[in-house]
Target: XRE family transcriptional regulator
Amino acid sequence: MTSPVEAIAHAVRRERMRIGVSLSELARQAGLSKATLSQLEAGSGNPGVETVWALSVALGVPFSHLVAPPTPTVRIVRAGEGFTTRAEDADYTATLLAACAPRTRADIYRITARPGRARLSEPHLPGTLEHVIVTDGRAEAGPPDGPIALGPGDYVSYPGDLPHVFRALTPDTRAIFVLEQS
Model:
């Protein structure tokens, strides 16, 4: 079985070759050092969610295209399973539950976060709309200058192609994110 880092390495290399850019050019576009990208493509290192997002934007593909394993016809993701990435600057994890299939543009994530530093997300691909449903705890989500306070069962959507934040207000806050890409 391929490790998550090996899967990311393969996907980044595949997408970089598909669009025909050099390692140096992709590193520049993603705001990474060439050495970091070279290590990632070699399957070493442990890229954070910010690094993978930067690469997905630079490559013009949804985040899930870089982290999702091939999916069978019927797929079950049990609690505690799924490909999980951690934020570099906040106590925040994102677990990919379902990646968009060809010709569909929505990815589903389960988020777990703890109070502390907010998770600031850079803009995703143009036309992205982010949907958030809090399932446990309390959080703030949305534009950095006016995040919305949410409790269990609350829903908010906002442009994902602009900077946005997610901040847990209580321990073990959980949410479902749907990234809709047009």
The beta strands are 83-86, 92-98, 106-113, 119-121, 128-136, 139-142, 148-150, 155-159, 164-168, 173-181. The chain has a mean pLDDT of 86. DSSP finds five helices and ten strands in the chain.
